[in-house]
Amino acid sequence: MGSRTCSSKTRCVSYGGEPTVERGNAPYLTAGRPGGSAMRTHTSAVDQPERTSGAASGPASGPASGPASGPASEETEVLVVGAGPVGLALALGLARGGVDCRIIEREPAFRDRGVRGRGVNARTLEVFEDLGVVEQALALGRTDLGIRTYRGEQVLGEEPVGSAGRPPTPDRPYGAMLLIAQHHTEAVLRDRLAEYGVKVELDSELVEFTQGDDAVLATVHRAGEPRALRARYLVGCDGGRSAVRKQAGFTFLGETWDEERFLLASLRVEGLDPDFLHIWTYEGMGAGALGLMPMRADDTWAVHARTEPDEHGRTPAPDLATFERLFAERAGLPGVRLHEPTWSTVWRPTVRMVDRYRAGRVFVAGDAAHCHSAAGGQGLNTGVGDAHNLGWKLAAVLRGAPDALLDSYEAERLPVATGVLAASSAQHRALFSDGGARTITRQFTTQSATGADFTGLSVGYRGGPLGRDLDEATGVRAGDRAPDAPVATASGTPTRLFDLLRGPQATLLAFDTDLPLPERPGLRRVTVRDPQGHAARAYGPSGPAVVLVRPDGYVAFTGSAASVADRPEALAEVMAGIGL
Ligand SMILES: Cc1cc2nc3c(=O)[nH]c(=O)nc-3n(C[C@H](O)[C@H](O)[C@H](O)COP(=O)(O)OP(=O)(O)OC[C@H]3O[C@@H](n4cnc5c(N)ncnc54)[C@H](O)[C@@H]3O)c2cc1C
């Protein structure tokens, strides 16, 4: 990209090697902060932590030491670095599990994330339901969009892609992807986190850390002043340029597709039907040529247009004039007006991932661990999956579970990231070549063009370190996602299995058996009452059976009641491994 300077009226930050120019911001970003500004200046709007010490397990006693000396160090059980969607989901999972945690964010104010992270898939919606934020997210987004594809003024096709294209089923309550601006998702997570008394500490940048046997000592620049923060564990959710990843010494192997550049913007549009995602194809660019997607809560549209560098390597500036020109060239629809851009950037896909997720007491999650093409809409979703996997494990280990439980985070999540990188790269090639119009429809309705499942529902950990099947008594296997099902309470009131699984505890499901089941703190026991047979269809027990579900909604153990009665130690071993 050619050199482009940022004027004093715009704000430039980088993502994927390209500057992002941001103009203005939606009012809610500074709401409640009189005089607050989204510009990158140090303001007085710094959230002070509500909790400043790791009260639950006492101060960390390790010999961690380093440059963060001077002011008395503050303490916490888990320090979450970065308040993007992944850090917020992690902090929420930790706080809900009773862990004392702090979450720091280097930006001085919450900001518009533009068109990033706007496709929230079915599995993430299940996680959001578990965390108590799904209704709020659904209210700010859309699941009812159709898709209309064009070549120039000619409409190629129109299809329902939302709930009509992919309706929910009893075992899978969320069908369509939710389209929601990432900053709205973040706001919803932040609000819920605040209900647990945890506020994002703004203007607080992790600059370095050292770790000892029992603790990590972090140096955090708060409003420019160095502070020492001691934590039992530190998790880098600090995005693609992660300082935590670099300091931990993880490699981040991969490549940036420098020849592919996408102009992205949020702006207002008049003259297009707001019930459709409009995609124009153009020779050699597939669905990358031009796309306009209406967003719900702030009445903006997310726009993308692929471009190529000129012979000097320059990319057109992502400003209104460029988008108007590209719209005229590639769409040419009369009566459409683009105006009031609120955010824009030039984006180049980066495809990279770490070799490790853990170094001692330090972990990475989300974009800090894996970056890839936005095709398939997997970044935020995969990162939230990381957070949901790691949160309960940290909580369990802090309460005495074996440390090996934390190793299972990398064992389970690294292969998921590997798969996502491959699938999103294949999807990228399919979307942005000549068959792109068909590919994007399939991405929203069924599966990717390459057969990959972008709903997140097929992610699982079969054969992983935590699960065990005692026999073949159930269709669901250890490591699988635990499906939902309409069931009944003991008194016959209709409910859902997800209502019974929700929360930071593990759950033992008893199918058609009154076998006495073990009692443990942090374990709920549920006798499944299944008048309509939905649970039986989803879990497939061939007779009386027991299924143990982890706090993150994955199956840890299956066995027939007879096998469990014969070998109770097998179930006890699995329970001990996950901290029960
Ligand atoms: C064009 C585009 C479209 C996308 N569409 C989708 C989609 O449809 N679906 C999807 O799932 N994903 C999508 N993504 C990806 C998604 O936006 C990212 O995967 C997601 O933002 C990652 O979240 P994160 O919390 O890991 O990192 P980030 O969102 O990058 O957040 C990291 C946070 O850490 C803070 N930080 C950084 N360093 C420090 C430090 N040293 N100290 C303190 N704080 C720090 C940053 O300021 C930032 O707030 C898209 C991405 C792009 C570029």
Structural commentary:
- The chain is α+β, with helices and mostly antiparallel strands and 580 residues long.
- Among the domains are: 87 residues, Alpha-Beta Plaits (2-Layer Sandwich); 110 residues, Glutaredoxin.
- 25% of the residues lie in helices and 27% in strands.
- It contains 13 helices and 28 strands.
- Strands 1-2-17-13-16-15-14-6-7 form a nine-stranded mixed β-sheet, with helices on both faces.
- It is globular.
- 52% of the residues are buried.
Assign the CATH topology of the domain at 468-577.
Answer: Glutaredoxin
Q: Which CATH architecture of the domain at 468-577 would you pick?
A: 3-Layer(aba) Sandwich
Helix content: 25-40%
Average residue-wise pLDDT: 85
Count of helical regions: 13
CATH class of the domain at 468-577 equals Alpha Beta
Bound molecules: flavin-adenine dinucleotide
Distance between the termini: 54 Å
Question: How is the main sheet built?
Answer: 9 strands, mixed
Strand content: 25-35%
Low-confidence stretches: 1-63, 65-72
The structural class is: alpha+beta
Number of strands: 28
Q: Tell me the radius of gyration.
A: 24 Å
Spatial strand sequence of the major β-sheet: 1-2-17-13-16-15-14-6-7
